[in-house]
């Protein structure tokens, strides 16, 4: 996006997002101090980030000639609330304690509890309970915000269906991701791509683009084409995430470069490497939480030597070409097409 346009759009979104949290924090005051603290921690977690989802939604709405800017802003708040709800729940499922380079909600509440003399196990349970409640609150809030758009019933129902599709597929994708990690099945590369689409790509890229198009009252077929572009973009970003999750620089990404290997996360990298001699020699280390940096480096080297890293980099290039072809064939307004092509470049080149 052009800098001035992006800045203006983001400022408008941030104003609405902040207003939402101010309202909820005030509302929580009517209950008790502890519940207000929960909302304040959620507020801290939710602020920051690239705002990819709301900006995609607003861009699609505006560039398709939409005249429901207030509804688009409300829906943009909804999709960002949904994103935060899902990452909070994902952290609980994965047992993670960091988010965006700092302590997540589980870690923050657990730390407070330990400082008050609560034993570590119970403190961790308290932190996870608070995170679960926070995710529940945000998930409900996302649906509520979208349901409040001031549009005809048919249009509001259409937008709610799109949002529901995103949540439905995210749950399916999360289930598959956990099943793969437990070894309940040995997925092939296509199954992993399907999981990536359902868990992340749909709600992160398809949903905002389709909601923006719906609120602009664009032809249904155009909404479907944008959905296909969103799916490809989502896969592109997720593949890049998986690459950075092993070979990225933590100081830049704000994420561990060993977590995926210690957790035994089943990614395309691992799928490409398995059954190769290089990976088989170190596979026993994969998924062992207690391994040290030297063992992690052995796993990284195996992913290099096996050719998995190069193969994933080639797949990222192919997916980018596919996304660009979809954009070229979609007959989009020139401004929207340019924004989406820019998103493809970002997806290929980003380091965080």
What composes the largest sheet? 2 strands, antiparallel
Name the shape in a single word. Answer: globular
Overall mean pLDDT stands at: 94
Rg, Å, rounded: 21 Å
Number of DSSP-assigned strands = 2
Strand order of the largest sheet: 1-2
- β-strand amount: under 5%
Task: State the share of residues found in helices, binned by percent.
Answer: over 70%
Q: Termini, distance in Å?
A: 18 Å
Low confidence ranges: none
Number of helices: 16
Oligomer status: single chain
Q: Which structural category do the helix and sheet elements fall into? A: mainly alpha
SSE topology string: HHHHEEHHHHHHHHHHHH
Secondary structure layout plus pairing:
Elements: H1 3-29, H2 33-46, H3 52-63, H4 69-94, E1 98-99, E2 102-103, H5 105-115, H6 120-147, H7 153-182, H8 189-215, H9 220-247, H10 250-253, H11 259-263, H12 268-273, H13 277-280, H14 293-305, H15 308-329, H16 334-349
Antiparallel strand pairs: 1-2
Helix pairs in contact: 1-2, 1-4, 3-4, 3-8, 4-6, 4-7, 4-8, 5-6, 7-8, 8-9, 9-15, 9-16, 15-16
């Amino acid at each position: 996006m052009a800098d001035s346009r992006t800045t203006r759009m983001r400022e408008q979104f941030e104003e609405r997002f902040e207003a939402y949290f101010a309202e909820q924090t005030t509302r929580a005051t009517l209950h008790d101090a502890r519940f207000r603290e929960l909302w304040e921690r959620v507020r801290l977690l939710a602020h920051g980030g690239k705002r990819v989802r709301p900006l995609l939604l607003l861009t699609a709405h505006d560039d398709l000639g939409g005249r429901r800017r207030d509804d688009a802003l409300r829906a943009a708040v909804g999709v960002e609330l949904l994103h935060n709800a899902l990452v909070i729940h994902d952290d609980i499922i994965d047992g993670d304690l960091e988010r965006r380079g700092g302590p997540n909600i589980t870690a923050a509440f657990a730390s407070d509890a330990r400082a008050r003399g609560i034993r570590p196990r119970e403190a961790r349970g308290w932190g996870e309970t608070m995170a679960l409640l926070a995710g529940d609150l945000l998930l409900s809030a996302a649906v509520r915000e979208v349901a409040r758009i001031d549009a005809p019933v048919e249009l509001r129902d259409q937008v709610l269906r799109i949002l529901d599709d995103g949540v439905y597929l995210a749950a399916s994708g999360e289930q598959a991701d956990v099943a793969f990690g437990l070894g309940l099945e040995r997925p092939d590369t296509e199954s992993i791509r399907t999981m990536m689409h359902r868990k992340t790509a749909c709600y992160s890229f398809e949903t905002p683009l389709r909601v923006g198009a719906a609120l602009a009252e664009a032809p249904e077929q155009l909404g479907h084409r944008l959905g296909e572009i969103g799916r490809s973009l989502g896969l592109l970003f997720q593949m890049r995430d998986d690459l950075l999750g092993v070979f990225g620089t933590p100081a830049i990404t704000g994420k561990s470069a060993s977590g995926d290997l210690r957790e035994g996360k089943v990614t395309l990298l691992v799928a490409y490497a398995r059954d190769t001699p290089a990976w088989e020699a170190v596979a026993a280390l994969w998924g062992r939480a207690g391994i040290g940096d030297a063992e992690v480096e052995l796993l990284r080297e195996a992913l290099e030597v096996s050719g998995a890293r190069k193969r994933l980099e080639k797949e990222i290039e192919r997916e980018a070409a596919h996304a660009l072809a979809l954009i070229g064939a979609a007959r989009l307004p020139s401004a929207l097409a340019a924004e989406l092509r820019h998103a493809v470049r970002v997806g290929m080149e980003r380091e965080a």
